[in-house]
Design goal:
Elements (H helix, E strand, L loop, with lengths): L16 H16 L4 H21 L1
Helix pairs in contact: 1-2
Length: about 60
């Protein structure tokens, strides 16, 4: 199931909007590549948090 800004996993509810939106983007891309949701969601969250940290450093 593709996720959206209004419909996302509970595990993303405590993320900032900026990080959550990036995580949704990453998770949807992983799902398109054939990843299962239970694997794609934690990867997407982790990568979005790293992305946000890199945005702060720039």
């Amino acid at each position: 199931m593709p996720w959206s800004k209004n419909d996302y996993p509970d595990s993303m509810k405590n993320l900032s909007e900026k990080v959550r939106n990036k995580a949704i983007e990453i998770v949807n891309a992983l799902l398109d590549e054939g990843y299962k949701e239970e694997r794609a969601i934690p990867i997407g969250i982790s990568q979005a948090e790293k992305w946000a940290d890199n945005q702060k450093e720039s």
